[in-house]
Amino acid sequence: MAEKNETAGEPITIKKYANRRLYNTAKSSYVTLDHLAQMVRDGQDFVVNDAKTGEDITRSVLAQIIFEEEAKGPTMLPANFLRQLIRLYGDTLQGFVPGYLDASMETFARNQETMREQVRSAFEANPALANFEALARSNMEWFENAMRMFAPFATGMNARGGAAGTAKSGKDEELEKLKTQLTAMQEQLSKLVKES
Q: Cα-atom radius of gyration of the chain, to the nearest Å?
């Protein structure tokens, strides 16, 4: 049955019981969060349903996997990024964040093989770091364009001046904070490349 789900492209159903155990219905066996993390890495799609209510709890289980991965050792989510994310809850831009993060990760995934190749090349020759920097610059431009798309009214209001200028400066501050965080992430990635 597992082969049917994997080949048909249907997500595998995982049931979570009250005792916190996870049951893979395709393989008729209990699994752990580590198993689910490996399924994600292997590209296997799954949904997690509460066994009692049938409620889809996939997002909370994926968040739990991330939490456990972050607790194990080398972290991927900088504290400033997490703080900014928390600040966005309840903000007027909250509705844009999921789509933006989704698009950002898709772009990153598309560039992932190129980045891996450039990391490999970094060991062979130093000019590869310039290519890596160009890719980071390209991602930064994409980020800036996305932020402009999310705040089209702020630009129009600033052109009229007056009190709108202060609203624009608030948006500029938010954009600068995000740019700073992105720069920090790029520096951290460059540091990882050098350490590898």
A: 21
- Whether the model clears a pTM of 0.70, i.e. scores above it, the answer is no
**Per-position DSSP letters for the chain, written without gaps between them:** -HHHHHHHTPPEEEEE-TTS-EEETTTTEEE-HHHHHHHHHTT--EEEEETTT--B-HHHHHHHHHHHHHHHSS-SS-HHHHHHHHHHTTSTTGGGHHHHHHHHHHHHHHHHHHHHHHHHHHHH-TTHHHHHHHHHHHHHHHHHHHHHHH-HHHHHHHHH-TTHHHHHHHHHHHHHHHHHHHHHHHHHHHHHHHH-
Per-residue pLDDT tens over the stretch 63-93: 999 999 988 888 888 888 889 888 888 888 8
Q: How confident is the model at residue 159 (pLDDT cuts 50, 70, 90)?
A: very low
CA distances from 111 to 84, 91, 144, 180, 188 (A): 24, 30, 18, 21, 17
Structure tokens at 91: 């903000």
